[in-house]
Records
---
Amino acid sequence: MPKMKLKDIISPFYVWQRSFEKPYTNNKPIDERPGAPSYRGFHVNDIEKCVGCGTCETICMNNAIDMVPVENLTAQVGDSGLRPRFDYGRCCWCALCVDICTTSSLRMSNEYAWVTDNPDDFRFTPGVDEKPWDDHPLGYRRDPDYSLLKLERPAMTMLSAEEGLNSFDEVVHGFTPEQAIVEASRCVECNICVATCPAHMNIPGYIKTIREQDFEQGLRLLYETNPFSSTCGRICTHRCEDDCVISHLGKPLAIRWLKRYITDQIPAEKYQQILQHKITENGKKVAIVGAGPGGLSAAYFLRLKGYQVSVYESAEKAGGMLRYGVPTYRLPDDALDKDIDYILSLGVSIHYQTTVGKEIDFQVLYDENDAVFFSTGLNVPSGLRIKGEDHPRVLSGLQVLCDVASQRDPGVGKKVAVIGGGNVAMDAARVCRRIGAEVTILYRRRIEDMPADPEEIEEAQAEKCKFVTQAIPGLIEKAKSLKQVVIQWGEAEMVADDNGGRPRPVLQEDKMHTDSYDCIISAIGQAGNYSFLPEDIKQQLVSQRGKFTVSNHQQTSNTKVFIGGDIANKTADAISAIADGQNAAIGIDEVLSLGMGTK
Amino acid sequence: MEYWITKIAYYLLTVSIVMVYGLLLSAVIAKTMARVQGRVGIPLYQPFIDIMKNFGNRTAISHGIMFYLGPVFRLAGGLGTLAFIPVIYGSEMFSNFHFAGDILLVMYFIFFGQLGMALGAGEGGHPYSAIGIARGLAQMTSYEVPFALAVIAVVVQYDTASISQIVAAQQGGFMNWTVFTNPFAVAAAMLAFLGMTGYAPFDVVMAPNEIPIGPATEFHSSYLSLMQINRAIFAGAKLVLFMNLFFGGAGNLIELVAKTWAIYMIPVIVGVAFPRFRVEQSVRFFLKIPTLIGVLAIFYVQYIVLK
Amino acid sequence: MKSLINRLTEQFKVSLEKQTKSDLCFIRVNKDDAEQLIRHCRDHESYTHLSFLTAIDRIEDNKFTLTYLLHNYQSHQSLGVHVELDRENPVMHSLHRLWGQMATYQRELKEIYGIEFPGSPRLNDEFFLEGWDQIPPMRKEFSTVEFCEERFPIREGRQSTDAKQTMKVEIYPGRGE
Amino acid sequence: MKNEDNTFANNGLLPEEMDLFCNARPVPYEPYSIEVVEKFFNWMRANSLWIMAFGTGCGAIELNPLMTSRFDANRYGIQVRPTPRQSSVFVIGGYSSVKTLKRIIRSYEQMQGPKFVLALGICTINGGMYWDSYNTIKRLDHYIPVDVYITGCMPRPEALLSGFFELKRKIKAGECDGANRYVKNLDWYKDNQKRVIKKWDMPDYNW
Amino acid sequence: MPSISQQPHKFDPPLEPDLTSGKYVKIWHGPQHPGITGNMSLELTICGDEVAHCKTHVGYLHRGFEKLMERRTFIQNFPVVCRIAVPEPAFNEYLYAAAIEEIAEIEVPELAQWLRVLNLELMRLASYLMWLGGSSGSFGMTTVYQWTVTHRDYILDLFEEMTGARIYHMYITPGGVRAKLPEGFKGRVLKVMQGVEKLLYEVEKVVFNNHVFKLRSQGLGIISKDMIDEYGIVGPNQRACGFERDLRKDQPYLVYDQLDFEVVTETESDAYTRAWVRYQEMHQSVSMIRQVLDKMPEGGSFHADLPNVLHWNVPAGETYVKAECTRGEYGYYMVTDGSEYLQRIHIRGPSYTHAVSVMEKLAVGINIADVAGLMVSLHTYPPEIER
């Protein structure tokens, strides 16, 4: 028992001094104290910005988020058309969804009071269902310095520009295992890219196999949709990466190189054992014209379905543009051969140096087979359409590439001008640099307008190709020496298009230049060659702007004829051709198994 | 007969006034305590609403006949206490049923309600009620000692057992109030009053963190409102009694309000400053200093005042 | 810590599992030696403070691992003692006479893992759960999600849409199968 | 569950306990027939909300500020009563484990009508954080009738206060009939309760 | 198998009294009881006013955290852990983060460490304020309870500004913290600290120099020295017994080695000294918060680089991390197996022993009026017992 002290009796009365001070109480408790500026209150979603990737749904540990279709919003490339709906009977306001939001569309307001007697009200789609806090300016946002997503790509090891210039060795080395895992783990598995990929490859699926180091499964996934994985892993135009949701805030995933990484891990001789394709013959025959990516892809898928496939190729080797149009420093032959060899190993019969229309008649193919697929590609270079373009020192880009690929000397000389801004122009320029020429690239518009891959442009710049932009060639003249040629070109000014199209270059007559080169490489586009088609079939095929109109499954109005590749699609790249081949196979299978289109 | 009817009518009027006043006072006190706690506190009408609400509850369950009677006894205790205390000195209207020995009856009635409550709460069957009642009775018996001593001192001092005569004896200036003529008796009585009002440190009966609500744990709805009404009346009666015995009574309503408020503030001032005693500490406290002072008061009266 | 392990190895059949940091290491000991070892650590090595006792369900090895974490207030080092139990018949000697708090931990483990500690006081009293009629909940084979679905109804009206399927249906129907 | 005379069987009780508990069924209570009286009492009820002092989950932590000086709910007639008999509002503070649910039901049934339930936090609405926990119920309205829901985790005291204001509004409008709903659908509620509370060692209705 | 001897032993629980003798009454304190901290209950057997036997019943708040965390990924667990101890979530966040950082060998930037200390010390102060209110409230002094809860609320305001939420901050993430300090925050912290110091001054006068408070709390629930090891008593309960043990000093974590503070000890080890130790520690916390604000680096990174949290495989490992929370040693025992999920996590809350074994032991023989006071003086939080 404590001793009683007078101090202990009197001191507690000090409590009364508080009654002379201002009370602690808030007068208007509900309005007086809004949430702090970064309070994690109710969600706000900018549905214009949101692409419906569903990463918020994935990270939510409370299963509070559903991705739901929204009125007036449809799925399109790069946007699933779904939007997150929150269940406020589940949400715990941890804001992980805000932190991980790939587009930064999701944020939180500082509103926090929501009271109702109907518990089913607590489900809402922010941005769609109007809520009083939609316009609150304050509230939690992800700190810009803090990200749960990995926005940076591991640096790809590449040959330096100097090293590259000395050889035709592959420039890109491919990921190291550590890099591959780091890169693969950046994927959020939203599946948005699948729609973008023309072949609709299971991209998140095979990226996952890299994380799990299960390359065999990866290869199986790749070969479900794309028999040219090794090739596409190198030269694909990777439109999937443009729509990768990570690209909204950072660098998109290097999907292409991850694909390459998988195929690089598996030697060609193990393909058969891993993929274990079992073919049940169905006795039907399909002829394929052109052993490019489109043709071989169709051959692969048709073969898997049990068709007897014969491919007719005019060149010595299969691969088409992949072999003759793409230089080996981008796509080494062995990588291409790896893919082609596997396709051929399935029992596809291929007839080299057999040009349809010369060695064999299209009509024969048409009659002997149950269906015909052709993807002959664009192999006729377009002319410059200026005076003097028939000068012998004016070469076509394709020709140069083809010569180099066939180990012939293209004879370009030491000082070369390349006209054009597409991939062919870049390739031609870089090839010329490698065989020791000085290269100047002339292009009508600006660099950002160039249709070539940005990486290619960058690499061309690094390899010291001289870029002369906004240069419109006017006239090609003979030079003093036979080995030279003179070009007259004028500077152009970019004029904004009134109709909102892209700006158009207008020649400035007073700023003309004249240069002389050893040769001029024209690489401004290609067209197809359909001379092998019999007239009656040609009549049946509809074409628009030089491209054939085909159905969803590459079928033409002649039910037996299927067309794919550059001559049928607008994008004119390898992966589209592969996709066309695949779809044609589906279409042919549908038609034939339904008993349509038989002889 | 007419005399009694008037008397009863006047009494009922007094009861209602004291009840309303008691409720208002409790709200004022609650607000005062809230102020010390740094807040606004309940509105003044809150006690009335609480009572009405409890009356308006749709269900009420009973644990037996004594459970019914508990609050009734309690209220009877309050009403009885008030019945024999003249509220305003000199006013026929507010003099109630005072008679020569009324103080003894009042002392009895102060006990009565508590006992009735004990029966009711016991029937409720809740252990906290039982503990609370045990505590309440223990504490009451202990604070009754100094209080009784103080009353005895006053009775001896004024040589009467009638409250109105005690008040009358204190008229004629504040120096005639018992508080100045016999401070020991008042000290003992006020210490007992601390226990009677049930504020800390003597809130062992209700003791929210020990035996929440105590005896009233099982009471609800109209039972509870009866008890709340009684609390107001009983508090009023006690205040008036103390005012009459020790602070010279009240000649008019204003004086009544001022004095009773001031008396009520004393336990409040102590109450917010101290935690709660344990019950045996409380008993020990009352049986020590206040009792000594009470004894002293009698001696003081006997040997100094009356000399 | 090294010297401690050496001293212990001399007297008991212990094996060092891992030393994660300078003041914490884990050793493994036989079930039957555990009581002696722990008593020794408490009485002679100043490991007087029992931080906790818990179990790990290693369903893939068909084992329960008990972890006794002891702490030495003098050297500020902690020693984790692992004891492996058979998962089919998990029985461990009750150590409730070493520490007053041990019985509580053992009671918890009995309830959430079903590990028996014969002789431990109040072992079979309900601790966290009331009226539990399933296998002990912390065991790995107990699926809490399935149990919830079966027993606790949730609010209807929740449905999520798969982005891949939606995009396939809306953007490229029929292609890329 | 029912005896023939429409009383509870109280199967959960031991035979010697049977006499200690009442087995009558509760009946619904109709409002006062005179509308003005009912309105008057509703106003009183709305302005004298006595909370049951039972912190059933984490929500109790925000009741402290609400009831103390900063927010001072006392001035709105809200006060805490430590006994169910005298309380009229039951604030379910978030998740309730099965063990607590049993106590909630006992306390709720001991409260005297009209009684109101304020469900606080996400866990009462659809399981919240603990949607996959084996020991917490997911939706409170299956077990006791709920009048007002407040979302949040934790709801701020202000949100809580808005919940109380909404409750007041509903009471004044005469829309809070949870107690009657409970009595009218008692069998359904009891079924739900007994489905999760496996150790039912109490009478069927806790008078 | 060595059999357990049948001889009575000092660690055996006390025998339950014979209820049929009529001498005893069994009453329940809680779960619905204002004197019990949180949702738990005591089954008291009383003889007159004296407690003859006490059993603690916990589990009313059992949510199975350890199970839930085994089926959530590492990042998904981080919002979960703070719910384990409701009045004091920050320590859970810190320990969970620290355990992962230790296993995955993540380096936490310096600024983040300072911010963590600031967060933890503010949390400690808030938690102590809550306790201080409860402590005086349990003895019947509601006035102080009102004051302290209000001042705690001012600290919660700071949290709201700093972290975005009042109670469940979810601020300390594995790898660092979630945000920088807002503009002008330091000034507001100092202002609140001033208020707290004034409050502490008042509280000392009103509570600690209060005869009745001393009467109630002195000599109540004395923890003897040999109980410390028997029951694993930690924190202020241990320090009030004369042991100078504080993890912040003994095994400094974060930047506590750069802060200047004292370990407060007392010797009487009753409810009053335990309260006094905590009261002194509040002063230490205020001083530490001031120091942190002084010494904290101005800029820099506040978050380490993590792998993509959606596919985060923390390497296999096993660790036990602990920190000194208001109640003593709070520990996380984490076992990982290299997958995306935890193999096992065990949370050691100091209340586990304080509220169960210690309470059962100390309650015997005290007056029923003191049960609430004893409970508060041990400072227990039920949610961390049952998790």
---
Amino acid sequence: MTKCASEIRDTALDDGALSARLAHIWGTPKTFWGFMTTVDHKEIGRRYIVTALFFLLLGGLAAVVMRLQLGSPDNKLVGPDLYNQLFTMHGSTMMFLFAVPIMETIAVYLVPLMIGTRNVAFPRLNAFSYWVYLFGGLMLWAAFFVNTGPDAGWFSYVPLAGPQYGIGKRSDFWAQMITYTELSGLAVAVEIIVTVFKMRAPGMTLDRIPLFVWAALVTAFMILFAMPAVMVSSTMLILDRLVGTHFFNWAEGGDSLLWQHLFWFFGHPEVYFIFIPATGIVSAIIPAFTRRRMFGYVALVLSLIGTGFLAFGLWVHHMFVTGLPRLGESFFTASSMAVAIPSGIQIFCWIATLWDGKLRLRTPLLFVFGFIVNFVIGGLSGVMVASVPIDTQVHDTYFVVAHFHYVLIGGAVFPLLGGIYYWFPKFYGRMLNERLGRWNFWLAMIGFNLAFFPMHILGLMGMPRRVYTYPAEMGWGGLNLLSTVGASIFVLSFLVLVLNIIRSLRSGEIAGDNPWDAGTLEWAATSPPEPQNFSRIPVVTDREPLWQNPETLPVIGGMHADRREILVSTLVEATPEVLESSPQATIWPFIAAMVTSVTLLASIFTPWAIVWGALPVGIALTGWFWPGGEKEDES
Amino acid sequence: MSFAYAKAAASIMASLLLVACEREQRDFQTPSSGSPSGDHYQRDAYDVAQGKRLFNWMNCSGCHSHGGGGMGPALMDNRWIYGGKIQQIYQSIHDGRRNGMPAWKHRMTDQQIWQVAAYVRSMGRYLRKDVAPGRDDAMQSGKAESRRERASAIVPSTPP
Amino acid sequence: MTAGRIRSVVQLATCSSALQACSGWQSALDPHSQTAAHLAGLFWFFTAICAIVWVLVVAALIMVLRRRRESESVLPGDDFPHQQRRKAIIVGSLTAITAIILTVLTYMSFYATREITWPRKHVLTVKVTGQQWWWQLDYQNQDPSQSFGTANELHIPVGQPVTVDLEAADVIHSFWVPNLIGKQDMIPGRKNVLTLRADKPGLYRGQCAEFCGLQHAHMSMFVFAEPPAAFEAWRRHQLEPAATPGAPQRITGMNIFVHGACATCHAVGGTDADGQTGPNLTHFAQRATIAAGTLRNTPANLSRWLADPQAVKPGTNMPQVPMSPADRQALVAYLEGLK
Amino acid sequence: MPRRRLLFSLLVSVAVANSRAATGLDHTPVDGQWMQAAKDYANTRYSSLTEINTSNARRLVPAFTFSTNLKHGHEAAPLVIGSIMYVVTPFPNTLYALDLSKPGAPLKWKFDPHPDPAAQGVACCDTVNRGAAYGGGKIVYNTLDGQTVAVNATTGQEVWRAHLGDIKRGETITMAPLIADGKVLLGNSGGEFGVRGWIAALNLADGTLAWKAFNTGPDKDVLIGSGFQPFYPQYRGKDLGTRSWPPGRWKYGGNVWGWVSYDPTLHLVYYGTGNPGPWNPDQRAGDNLWTAGIFARDVSNGQARWFYQWSPHDLYDHDGINESIVLDITWRGQPRKVLVHPERNGYVYILDRVTGEVLAAKPFVYINASKGVDLKTGRLIPNPKKTTGMGKTVYDICPTASGAKDWEPSAYSPRTGILYLPHANLCMDEQPVQANYIKGTPYIGANVRQKPGRGGNRGAFTAWDVLKQTIVWEIKEPLPVWSGALVTAGDVVFYGTLDGWFKAVNARNGKLLWKFKTESGIIGQPITYLGPDGHQYVAILSGIGGWVGSIVSNALDPRDKTAALGMVNAMHDLPAKVRAGGRLYVFRVR
């Protein structure tokens, strides 16, 4: 580190000047160029969230069409070809383009704020991951709109998705979409891990990390271990389809079950990528609205880690009817049951916190209540499907559809909605309307249960999944109609949310820095946060720093005020270690993402694309890392 | 100037989209009217895939194997005794040929014959790569249709 | 939500349908075999436990809302150490109880699995091959001349265990007759085995449970559980070639069938029609349904099916064979005569 | 090992003499003619001519050649009766009569039967013909489209014509008929078309049907009556030809397209039956009687005497149609009337031809498809590791579908006691798939890739000591040996190779004496005769084709490894070695 004459430290500036100066250094110009080049985690996180919600909308529309089709028996609204594409798009979109990204990117937005730093580690990678994710999602939907939507289910079982029965390019787009989203997912996971481990504010020891951040951390680790499995398998699928390898060709020594093992080795943990951050949201909301510290912090953290570990030992329960050895299956029954224990602990701790808390029944807390009510149903039906004998009856029926929608909507979307109501003021500086929030909640609650509870019964009545229609004589019509009505109400609840958001953006009540009087660090920043998040890095001495120091937070000084700089701290105790520069805005992540995307897209049609694409990708990466002579290069 | 580029780009995009749509079409219903030229069957991956199934089901593979031939001539090379255009192949299947090829007009529907003809064209990879089938889930006979080198120009060959 | 209520909802929904025969004919909760009864029993037990747990959780939440707080601290986040300890004990015990319940459920599940999969002496082996989108049934026998093939309608003798060998010809399918037994996948290149036993005579519907492409929705099957004598009569009849038609119209129909497109895929025993890629139609007229349970087997429906199969079952491999109405009528007459 | 005393009786001449006595046909007493493809009823292909011998064979030179102007497989044996040589071509099955008495053997006449061209589409393994037979002044042979024609041997006029095969069902006829007891014996081909196999006897005089016996189905069709006394119990019972199959499935298989032997003393004909259809074994549970076995039938009425099955429930297309050589030997001290049969499944069987008992079965190639023959029950012991089934790919099955030895006939010399076996050394990967029966189209249901067997040499010419059941010597050939063999009293053995070499080797040690490169590959049957000039000649047809050579004759594409039922994969280099053609070569010693 060379000391320059022009060097300016924060100690030399008063608060106002420092804030203005840092805002300029960290800021994103409100220009097109600024938009394209920004590496600010808040900018990227926000557009990530908006994009994910956009895909939620698309996936939801697919679901609406499916519900309309199933609303009455022998319906001819959509044919089997379109229906198969619709449910594949619905599942793939919801899992790969909505649920996982949104959970990861809420973390991208919030984690630096919650741990008191100015950006994520590897901000350019962050920008890159967003663009890759965006292009992957757009590619999939563009393909769908030209009748090339994947039609073999979001799980793409071979041989149906394989080269012989997966006709045309539909499954190739699916498999390549996996590559895009997993690439971005892995990038984010790496960022989160490094950010949490090395960039926490001084004093934020491991046992002072907010539970949401713990959840994000555990999720990131799970992603790191699970996603390679699906990338490998989807690459194998592409190779089978394009190059004629025999990974899944049982007639030449391959095995179609290999796909299922690899897919579910990822696919089951994936449910927890979605659910664990959601529990983090719940654990963030509950203290704020009960005015109580979370009961059983250590137990909750251990539950998260335990869930993370156990999640990798459950995948076979998706394969109970494939004819695997019964004893082995029973092992997976036991592990699937066991994963209910950490979930149980979390629920008990939440209820214990609520028990003698000073409840403020605002919309976020309502959604937490809804979450517990619905998720427990999903969790308990999960215990049922974990049992091999019961699973042989309900597997691949609407019972399972009901089950995982209770887990994913009840267990993740409800907390997410709560989280939106909770953090919206932080993101945009304005409150969401409480009245509309209640409408939103009750419509969601009623609509959701109406839509999905009957599916349990339909499954027991023998209705299999993924059927585009059913005969009247099966007697499934009534419950399906009920479900369709429920789904419509559920959709209505989202319209209320959209309305609420639009209204608030225009004329919502100004929020202030800490409207909920919550205790975690993100509420110490302004609403919306300044580009640098914190002009002076706070020092943490408690799990709820703002409750401990309601008036002013202790801060550290001595950081440069003339460059993008962050504080690197130690892993366990978070004692300051070194000052590290943080990269400036650049267009290269966008360019790299674009050439990567074009390469991947072209590789759907010819394997040579990988060879030819390596060149522009290499150029883009060179540009990315080329030193630009900025001050950031010095430190 | 840039407008012209945009127009060109737009038309390329449009034709790409059209190609994609046509490739992925699933025509379950027999086309109702007229006698189509049959060319569109060669651009539809579904028709080609159905043709491939029929090629096995209708025992075409019994004589022509997986394109290399056997009792019947090879279909993956560029020698075509009775012509290698899809219409000529259709004719060979539909009416049969005197040196052993049976007529299928009473045993297969027109649509099926067109599908098989389209598939036969894929054997020498006279079809686009993205339309030609990938490998089977079966013991391999060689490179999948979509991975074959395109056979060179069709040359007429004399009947045996 | 109690067990009884779900049951009544199920019954209500099924009984309201038009056809009497279908009451609960594809229901996991209307067991007609020991195995299915076992499964249903286990299911209800699990449901009861889960319902209790859920009710307790919801009750706790309601109490949270209704509860009058003892004291309200001024500052947010204040802890009450005595409460903390009490809560820790409660949460700890609840966790322990959860673990115990789950252990019990795991063991029950494990023993139920053993109960169901215990190999039994079987009297009959049927190989079921899943095809897009129908079921090929091959009744096997040590004596090859006693073996035969049929499709989509599985006849079994009541009270006798039947071994079902499950295979697939193209993609993965799944064999599932909920009233009798849980499902088992049919995976190309693998063989799975189920032992099926119906304890009450009846007609049970099954349906492919693994997504298998365009017509996954119309891939159902029927199981006819018959008294052993009736089954034996049926079996013997299946060994016979098809009835030779007598009426001129039927003879015309036979000629259309045997010399036309039908014979390239379908077999009728005793004729030159011996196609193997479609369902065997030797005793077609005895079947209750057409196209893997898509339509009831009536002359009108058969005519409709032959006229435009793609309208009935889009994507089916059955082509629309052009035919004059008179020919179609003759064909229908022939097929409906294949008793 | 008990010491065996070996005694050969020259059944060859006995048979000829007896047949003459029995039928009064004008078989010349001199062993200088070649009146049927297999030379004699015993199928020895042994000639007592001695002019060509081990010392002068190297001086063999072409005497004349004759082009057929065809480019398909020439499998036939020429016939020589008196001073005329008769050559049957592959489709269109023209019969040429060459006048040997004149220099260069000019064409005397030709006869064209005009077979239906559509027959080419249902000929499984090229449009071959394996030769004619002579009797009663007539040359009798079969045409590809299922006809049998009798032509006046002198004038070339058609005498009669019978039509037994229906090509609409896929029935063709490629075999050389055998004339015995005043009857023409022939059977149908079409094992790959789901054809029901039969053997028929036509009256030589007028071509009317004397009897016809099916090889599957109810006893009355198979001509199984009270005289049927098979040695093994598994062949006893009513209607086993239907009951050893799933109902209705017995309509496919058991064709007769190979060699028929005849024992005039026992008045029995022996012939092997072809494979059951389809190849996919799961579509035909059971032993599939009476396919892939051998029948002994009373020549006068066709009634079956006994049966033995080489390959019960044949898993690998190992049809049992190979030649059975009629010998009288001393076996374990007892004189036995036997058949020696080198079978496609890789064993040389010795059967008691009176009772149908298997005396011995020893492998002459590497076999892993089966583990031997149980001499107590007579059953082949299958190898579970190589058992095929629907959809299951089984790798490296030896021998392959075309067999350790296909139809190409061996020769037996009573002078050496050796059987001269032309054969292949191929293995295969096989995946049975669902076969679909559509009348007149192939009914196979298998993906096959053939490949070289152990050692890499795809063929061999093996001298097999019949009594010791051991290999005396063996010539490894890079390509399968698909020509017939011929052995003479001069101790010279002749055979041809696929790349066109016609070879003469020493019958006692296998030393190469002479070779000559012909214009195409050789899959024909060498013969020898005494010319009108009193000299010994050797004749062979050169013309690549058949199953093994269809890659050349039908211009198949080797990129498809399953083409021609996988044979193309094993023969992918053949087009580089040999060209299609059709030419008769006749040699003599200069």
